[in-house]
Amino acid sequence: MAETLHIGRKISKLRELRGMKQETLATELGISQQAISKIEQSAEVEEDALAKIAHVLGITPEAIKAFTEEAVFNIISNTFHNTSSDSSTLIASSMNYQPTFNTIEKIVDLYERLLQSEREKIELLKNSK
Fold first, then answer.
1. What is the pTM of this model?
2. With 91 labelled, which of 32, 44, 80, 104 sits at a CA distance of 20 to 30 A?
3. DSSP class of residue 41?
4. What is the distance of C-alpha 92 from the center of its chain?
């Protein structure tokens, strides 16, 4: 359960999913690579710093807070479909899978839309009381 609340680990995972090195994130934020390392080891991150990091990663602070690896795996598994029942074809087709779009951007976009949908549901429930 602690991992789901560890903001630093979430930042690290999202940075890695973006294919970004600590040095690149540090340069974009105007801080040292060591500072990024320290942030990624921290369970909590100040809101101001989180907003700046989220901006560089191209996502919202809320997406960082709500991020789970399980959600990413669910998106990937629900997105990949194979019509063949032959498992060797499945393995071969997945090994040769080369999307023509940035999969990380698509995952983040889907995640952001899911998060927005949940916010709208919560707002509707609040207003119906």
1. 0.57
2. 104
3. T
4. 27
Is 54 within 8 Å of 10 (Cβ atoms)?
A: no
Contact 11, 64 (CB under 8 A): yes
Residue 106 lies in domain: 1-129
Token code pair at residue 114: 């899911």
Whole-angstrom CA distances from 4 to 1, 25, 40, 118 are: 6, 22, 14, 18
**pLDDT tens column, 44-101:** 999 999 999 999 999 999 989 988 877 766 666 665 554 445 444 444 444 444 555 5
Q: What is the CATH number of the domain that holds 109?
A: 1.10.260.40
Q: Report how far apart, in Å, the C-alpha atoms of 2 and of each of 7, 8, 16, 41, 49 are.
A: 10, 12, 20, 13, 21
Please, which residues have CB within 8 angstroms of residue 53's CB and are 6 or more apart in sequence? 11, 25, 29, 39, 45, 64
How many domains does the chain contain in total? 1
